[in-house]
Write a structure and sequence with these properties.
single chain; 1454 residues; mainly beta; 6-stranded antiparallel sheet; 4-stranded antiparallel sheet; 109 strands
């Protein structure tokens, strides 16, 4: 069976052999529980020597390279490498994440250190500036950052005796930092004559401003303040890599293999030379020491960890060993014993006991080892070497049996036949040699079918066939032992394979992603009995698949821990364990195989918390093939909210049109009109792609959103108030627990969330900067202080905010697929839940990150698509609604049971004090008890139940329900069709608000003498709306097709509607019943117009470039207007009904004579004289000014002229409604602009008496009514003129001084040329930092510190004399203001010039200086508060223009 589902069994990491000693230092400590903490590859390890047990921290996804221990010795901070590296702070008891610090460093985190009370953490990055960052790690908040040094920093430490002081050291420097406010300021250590300037590798701080540091030449440098005061020469014979301070004194470890102990005054106590001990060897180099009481831990360059007891210091105990530097490729398992053999480029072969978790034998070879195999009887171990030779050893005592070299290139694979008679050896020379084991390994055959290097081989069970894979991904078969290639498929039909380690073949098709390079899976091993197989790949992932695995893109379980390439993986002989080895991390991982887990087991194996989402696109989900999504959800996931142009792009676009702006500014432009409009009422509610976005406020009003408007609706008075702070579609809305504030999230390039008050309609906070493209879900915490939001970027980023401060607390990538809902746990504001497509995750905050755990379904089935979620009556209970109509009940992260609630998806869910209410696609509202045991009552939304006071008509029975909320004795329901209904508990339903359904609305017509309008939309409905204060929908009719235009006849009795299939109807305007219908065209009817007066003719324009003219009385087509080169967009009749004006998509303005349709050419001046019955055209000299500067990017879609011909209203693709004076002659007229629609305003119309402007928005489905206010009426809403930035010249310009100052550019000096020409490259620019792509292919480790060894220690430097500033002449007045102040009751004057703050004493004439700035000071102010006397703030210009440094200083104190 070709099952593509993930296997039910899983792996659990049981042991890691190895320790990262290379290129790291100070990474080995005792915890408070006397356990040992260190790291290897991407795993933090906590080892208990007493119990010989390891615990693992698996929160990283790449090599860990730095570690710091909290002063209380329970928490550990680790930093990793990678493109977006992060720091994890985790608990060494529970190995769970406490905090994640991210989004600041790049490349990697080289060192970490906690301060004395453990509140702050300092980190150093691997970027080109070696950035130093200080964190409040519990909050995940960055307190300060500064460039560290132009060269590598090796160690950093807080001064434990002085608050806010740090010391860092590295290549040829040591720096002493002080943290003041959020500014880190360094001072370089002065080497002076006392010692040579050289690289400092480690340091420790002591009392009285003393710092001890270990240098590259083995000396210890002692610093007082920033000056070198003495050196302890020859402390070690070579570089000192590690220095550890404890109560008793200091321990140092060096490249000479010695550990030295010193007392608190750095007097020597003792020395331990590890090279001289039993376990020692030449070249042993110490990278890390930790001294605790009478125990010393030592980590070496070659991945060993020693423990030394002080009174038996010549007998160190070897706790851990691993392979040394060089890649690790060779792995074999013993056929009958729990042993694994590994061989590496460090030339050693090692045998590990999988039961005792220990190294039991080791042997050094002459050459790097690339592969290994054990004979079937377990007696011989064959090793393939990098130089093309292979060696056979006896397993018993590691003595050599034979050494053979028949090839020049590396041997990458060798295998013994199952009968033990042959050894097949595959080399990079593209051939496989067969040797007879009994004939003392004589060569007896050769397979030469491959064209590329041999990667994998397997023998058949009867030893008669061999299959091979090569570097081209080819799979070949050979007869054994002759080596003849087998080409007939028949011959291979019944062959049983003894093992399966090949990566190509039908049986393993499924291990390959659907689109993948054939080389990125390095190793496979099948467990025939358990029907599973394990794979190892280049991305550091070990995966578990079913075997056989026939179809591409099969599901799997995946396990992280290795950092880069996993080079090999094998099952142990009894399939109890899997052993995997890492290439660059040269570690050996031993995984316990847990067969198909039963539910009860899964409850006690809590899912491994991980920062990495193991549910990558292809993986891990337990279902084989996902069931069909519900059509409605499917539709919703395909909506894209991306815009070609966002409103944020406007300033940039205008910038590009500079030339046009200049020419516009020089001409007199028509003023903006004096009259204005104000938004009065909006018909519509966004239900088709939103959920749970409808609530009662404190005062019983209803708050919801449509288009870019937040609406507060008073149902008693049938009035609305509007929040107009957004400028694009609002996609989500949440209400504060006190029901007075609302949060709304919008679409945008850098989309914003607004929190606003429903009473005052004022914004309280706007949150930006973290969501791309849009925000699709928001939720307040129960205390109202926090807000969670989800973006619609590709990772659906989840952000937790402190919204009052506008501060991001934590963020994490949510899921590749759409997330619909986020909910904060009401009892624990640190926890949240998100649900979406095949997604349900429980999150908890950890500093700046969030840790997610997938819901555990156990044997209950597969992860369904979840549409809604709420928390229940205790902190661990949660409930989610699925796309199949079930409600899932969760305790903690485990699914307890499911209850069938609706037919079709459950879209909305609301928790009550006692019980729940749910709504689904089936149009039913259900009330439940508090355990979802019983359904107490259901309400079906039906037309028959509509109460008389309704503001409209239900389009259909049982509309899909998208939002539910309770309050004031009613249930509020929002539907997909854009209706808001209020359900009385006793049953009657009142319709309050409605709009069009999903689809664009284009057709709009106002009645010739009543406050009524008609709209027609792509949702296939024609609707009539009452514009008088009753604001309701009067009638609706379903059409066979969507429509794009409509028009009332001059007497208002008939209504013509153009449809999208090229037909049009004329219906009775009251009953909407058909009067007549025609179809002469195949394309969309884009505009339709009755001639004025008696309405004798009807002009019908279509998208196939024609206008047809019909005689209404005879119902015949009487004329066709030809000659347009593009689709028709707008059409107007003249007053006599004899002439038609037509606009086309190619921006042509054409004229046709009616009724025959003959094309006319009319000069511009004549056009202006003609009296037009209506003006909806957007072209021609009268409306030249309505086109914006960026007219190429955006279209003006509609216009309409008031009946007094004074004001032209327009709608455009940016969602702006604008008012212009008419005629708008000359380019770029001034206007008043209003935002409420989101993207395209498709149509605008004045009512018959000009009292209202009616506008429709395309995709936002809304119909908006604006009241027209005459000049003199106070305009309550700001409306700006888009081009107002051009107005300054017309307003009389500036005084010459102001103009000059306005043009000063503060960037040029710092960024472009030097005053004095200089040649050559500045030293800090010379060394190019390797980009991520240039790193060596396997070793993603740090570049090796080779340049350290070549220090010119011997150079003597001239002593530097000190200069002291005594007097400064000058004061900066040319471009600054308000920068001279009295202090100390007039005794002193403070001012600035250049980069110096000057305090001038009036009586003595002396000056004192503040010299912490490093560039021109541009502003100065004095704190007037009595508590802060003499505090001054100054701001400077800087090379990073955006960084304004404010330095506060106390006058008279400096």
């Amino acid at each position: 069976m070709a099952d593509r589902s993930a296997p039910g069994c899983h792996l659990r990491l049981e042991w890691v052999y190895g320790y990262r000693g290379h290129q790291c230092r100070n990474n080995l400590y005792y915890t408070a529980a006397k356990e040992i903490v260190y790291f290897v590859a991407g795993v933090g390890v906590v080892y208990s020597p007493r119990e010989h047990r390891q615990k693992f921290y698996l929160g990283h996804q790449d090599d860990i390279i730095s570690l710091a221990l909290h002063p209380e010795r329970v928490l550990v901070a680790t930093g990793q490498v990678g493109k977006e590296p992060y720091i994890c702070v985790w608990d060494s008891y529970t190995v769970q994440t406490v905090s994640v610090l991210k989004d600041v460093h790049t490349h990697g985190i080289a060192c970490l250190a906690f301060d004395l009370d453990g509140q702050r953490l300092v980190s150093v990055g691997l970027d080109s500036k070696n950035t130093v960052c200080v964190w409040d790690w519990r909050k995940g908040k960055l307190l300060s950052m500064a460039p560290g040094h132009t060269d590598r920093i090796f160690d950093i430490s807080w001064d434990l005796y002085q608050p806010n002081k740090l010391v860092s050291c590295g290549v040829k420097h040591i720096k002493f930092w002080s943290l003041c406010g959020n500014s880190l300021t360094p001072k370089r250590g002065v080497f002076g004559k006392t010692g040579d300037l050289q690289t400092i590798l480690c340091l420790a701080c002591a009392r009285d401003e003393v710092t001890y540091s270990g240098a590259l030449n083995g000396d210890i440098y002692v610093w007082k303040g920033i000056n070198l005061v003495r050196t302890i020469q020859g402390a070690h014979a070579a570089g000192i890599f590690s220095m550890n301070a404890c109560e008793e004194g200091f321990a140092t470890g060096g490249r000479d293999g010695c550990v030295r102990l010193w007392d608190l005054n750095f007097k020597p106590i003792t020395v331990i030379d590890l090279r001289e001990t039993d376990q020692g060897y030449k070249g042993l180099s110490v990278r890390s020491v930790c001294w605790r009481g009478d125990h010393i831990l030592v980590g070496t360059q070659d991945s060993e960890i020693f423990e030394i007891v002080v009174h038996e210091r010549n007998k160190p105990f070897l706790i851990m060993q691993g392979h040394c530097e060089g890649e690790l490729w060779a792995l074999a398992v013993h056929p009958t014993k729990p042993l694994a053999m590994t061989g590496s480029d460090d030339r050693s072969v090692r045998i590990w006991s999988l039961i005792d978790h220990a190294l039991i034998a080791r042997c050094n070879m002459e050459e790097p080892i690339r592969c290994a195999a054990v004979s079937t009887d377990g007696i011989h171990l064959a090793l393939g070497m990098k130089d093309g030779s292979f060696t056979v050893l006896r397993v018993r005592d590691m003595t050599e049996v034979v050494h053979i070299k028949d090839r020049k290139e590396a041997i990458h694979e060798l295998k013994y036949s199952p009968d033990g008679n042959f050894l097949a050896v595959g080399s990079n020379d593209s051939s496989v040699d067969i040797y007879g084991v009994v004939q003392r390994y004589k060569k007896i055959g050769e397979c030469i079918g491959s064209l590329s290097f041999i990667t994998h081989m397997d023998w058949s069970s009867d030893s008669k066939y061999l299959q091979t894979n090569d570097g081209n991904g080819k799979r070949l078969f050979y007869r054994m032992p002759s080596g003849k290639e087998v080409s007939s498929k028949e011959e291979l039909k019944g062959v049983q394979w003894a093992s399966w380690t090949c990566v190509s073949g039908v049986e393993v098709n499924g291990i390959w992603p659907k689109y993948s390079d054939i080389n990125d899976i390095n190793s496979v091993d099948a467990n025939f009995i358990g029907q599973v197989m394990v794979t190892a790949d280049d991305y550091g992932i070990v995966k578990l698949f079913r075997y056989p695995c026939l179809r591409k893109g099969a599901k799997f379980k995946k396990y992280l821990g290795h950092s880069a390439h996993v080079t090999n993986v094998r099952w142990s002989h009894d399939h109890q364990w899997v052993v995997s080895i890492g290439g660059a991390d040269h570690s050996v991982f031993q995984w316990k195989f847990v067969p198909d887990r039963k539910l009860k087991d899964s409850l006690h194996i809590a899912p491994q918390e991980s920062l990495v989402d193991s549910n990558s696109d292809e993986s891990d989900s337990d279902q084989s093939d996902v069931p069909e999504l519900d059509s409605e959800i499917e539709q919703e996931t395909q909506i894209t909210y991306r815009r070609q142009v966002y409103k944020e792009d406007l300033p940039q676009l205008k910038e590009q049109c500079k030339e046009k702006r200049k020419s516009a500014a020089s001409k007199r432009r028509e003023r903006a009109p004096g009259n204005s409009i104000r938004l009065h009422f909006v018909h519509g509610y966004r239900g088709y792609d939103c959920r749970s976005n409808l609530f009662y406020t404190q005062t019983g009003e209803i708050v919801y959103h449509v288009a870019a408007v937040g609406v507060v609706y008073n149902r008693q008075q049938n009035t609305q108030r509007f929040y107009l702070g957004h400028d694009d579609d609002i996609l989500c809305l949440a209400i504060h627990p006190l029901k007075d504030y609302v949060a709304t999230g919008q679409v945008g390039r850098d989309s914003s969330i607004h929190i606003w008050d429903t009473e005052t309609i004022r914004p309280l906070s706007v949150l930006k900067g973290y969501h791309q493209y849009g925000v699709c879900a928001v939720d307040f915490s129960a205390d109202g202080k926090r807000l969670a939001s989800v973006g619609i970027d590709d990772n659906h980023t989840i952000v937790l905010w402190d919204w009052k401060k506008g501060e991001k607390l934590s963020a994490v990538r949510g899921s590749k697929d759409k997330i619909f809902v986020v909910k904060i746990n009401p009892y624990m504001p640190e926890k949240l839940i998100t649900v979406g497509i095949k997604h349900l995750k429980f999150w908890r905050r950890a500093g700046g990150g969030l840790i997610g755990r997938k819901g555990c379904i156990g044997a209950m089935g597969r992860t369904d698509t979840m549409m809604c979620a709420v928390y229940g009556w205790t902190e661990e209970m949660a409930f989610s609604g699925t796309s199949t109509g079930d409600v899932c009940i969760w305790r903690d992260v485990f699914l307890i049971k499911t209850v069938k609630a609706h037919d079709g998806p459950v879209f909305s869910m609301h928790a009550l004090e006692k019980g729940f209410v749910t709504g689904g696609k089936d149009g039913v509202v259900a009330l439940w008890d508090d355990t979802f045991e019983r359904c107490l009552k259901t309400y079906a939304i039906k037309r028959a139940a509509l109460a008389p006071g309704s503001k409209g008509l239900l389009l259909e029975d049982n509309p899909s329900i998208r939002a539910i909320s309770l309050g004031h004795g009613h249930i509020l329901v929002g539907t997909k069709n854009g209706e808001i209904l209020e359900v009385d508990k006793s049953g009657p339903i009142t319709l309050l608000v409605q709009g069009h359904m999903e689809g664009e609305v284009w057709g709009l017509a106002t009645h010739p003498h009543l406050p009524i309008c008609a709209t027609v939309s792509d949702d296939k409905t024609l609707r009539i709306w009452d514009l008088s204060p009753s604001h309701c929908m009067l009638a609706v009719r379903k059409l066979k097709k969507g429509g794009r235009c409509c028009c009332f006849s001059p007497d208002g009795k008939a209504l013509a509607v153009g449809l999208n299939d090229g037909s049009f109807l004329i219906v009775n305007a009251d009953t909407l019943e058909d009067l007549v219908s025609f179809q002469h065209r195949k394309d969309v009817i884009s505009e339709i117009r009755f001639s004025p007066g008696a309405g004798k003719y009807l002009a019908v324009a279509s998208c196939d470039n024609f206008v047809d003219i019909y005689n209404v009385m005879s119902s015949k087509r009487v004329g066709i207007c030809k000659g347009a080169s593009s689709y028709i967009t707008h059409m107007d009749w003249d007053v006599r009904g004899k002439l038609l004006q037509v606009n086309t998509g190619a921006k042509e303005q054409l004229f046709f004579e009616a009724p025959r349709g003959k094309k006319q050419t009319i000069p511009t001046l004549e056009v202006e004289k003609i009296g037009w019955a209506s003006w909806t055209s957007v072209l021609g000299s009268c409306c030249e000014g309505i086109w914006p500067i960026i007219g190429e990017v955006t279209d003006v879609t509609a216009s309409c002229l008031t009946s007094d011909s004074k004001v032209l209203a327009t709608g455009d693709d940016f969602g702006f409604v604008k008012l212009f004076r008419y005629p708008a002659k000359g380019k770029f007229g001034k206007f008043k602009r209003y935002v409420a629609h989101s993207t395209h305003v498709t149509n605008v119309r004045w009512t018959y008496d000009d009292s209202l402007l009616v506008t429709v928005g395309g995709a936002d489905t809304s119909l908006m009514l604006w009241t027209y206010e005459m000049e003199g009426h106070r305009d309550t809403r700001q409306c700006d003129s888009e081009e107002s930035d051009l107005d300054s010249e017309e307003d009389g310009g500036y005084d010459s001084d102001v103009t000059r100052e306005n043009e000063i550019n503060y960037t040029i000096k710092a960024l472009s040329t030097n005053i004095r020409p200089m040649f050559g490259i500045k030293p800090h620019l010379q060394q190019k930092e390797p980009t991520l792509d240039e790193r060596p292919p396997v070793s993603r480790a740090l570049p090796q510190p080779e340049k350290l060894q070549t220090n010119n220690v011997g150079k003597k430097k001239r002593p530097i004399e000190d200069l002291i500033l005594e007097l400064v002449f000058g004061y900066r007045g040319k471009d600054c203001r308000n920068n001279v102040h009295y202090l100390n009751d007039g005794a002193d004057v403070i001012y600035h010039t250049a980069s110096i703050g000057i305090l001038y004493n009036v009586a003595t004439g002396s000056q004192s200086f503040y010299q912490e700035h490093n560039d021109d000071i541009l502003c100065l102010t004095v704190n007037q508060h009595p508590k802060f006397t003499n505090i001054v703030a100054t701001g400077q210009e800087t090379q990073q223009i955006c960084q304004l440094q404010l330095l506060l200083f106390m006058c008279g104190m400096q």
